[in-house]
Amino acid sequence: MPELVRLYIRHTLIGVLIAIAFVAMLLWFNVANLWHLVTATQGGTIAVIMLVVANAIVFGGVQFAIAVMRMAEPEDRDDGGRRDAIPLGAEPALVPVASHRRRR
After folding, report:
1. Comparison of pLDDT for 17 and 82, the residue scoring more
2. Environment class of 59 (CB within 10 Å of its CB; exposed 0-12, middle 13-18, buried 19+)
3. Spatial CB neighbours of 55, under 8 Å, sequence gap ≥ 6
4. What pLDDT sits at residue 78?
5. How many folded domains does the chain comprise?
6. Confidence band (pLDDT; 50, 70, 90) for 61?
7. 98 part of a folded domain
């Protein structure tokens, strides 16, 4: 299996585990009375599954993006931002403007 595919699978699974922990903490700390809503309604299990899947997509994508961005090579240059020199003593150019207004 190519290294990039293994990297993707590994970091996406890490993101899924983070999402499961996040949803578990939401339920454990009863944020917005979520535990009661999940346990008292008939579709509570489906709601938890949907919450885990949606967060797994987000956290998995973020985890993989962080892993890819960390693969970049460090920049050795310390150039900083330099601008071209501003010419001193330059006068603005005059541009003739013709008026083509209609009179009523």
Report:
1. 17
2. buried
3. 19, 22, 23
4. 66
5. 1
6. very high
7. no
Dist. CA 41–CA 54, nearest whole Å: 20
What is the domain extent for residue 19? 3-69
Question: Taking the C-alpha atoms of 38, 43, 48 and 54 in order, what is their torsion angle to the nearest 10 degrees?
Answer: -140
What is the residue-averaged pLDDT of the chain?
89
Q: How many CB atoms lie within 10 A of CB 34?
A: 18
Q: Up-side HSE of residue 13: CA atoms within 13 Å toward CB?
A: 6
DSSP secondary structure letter of residue 82 = -
Q: Is residue 61 part of a domain?
A: yes
The single-letter code of the amino acid at 63 is Q
The per-residue b/e assignment along 63-82, b for 16 or more CB within 10 angstroms, e otherwise, is bbeebeeeeeeeeeeeeeee
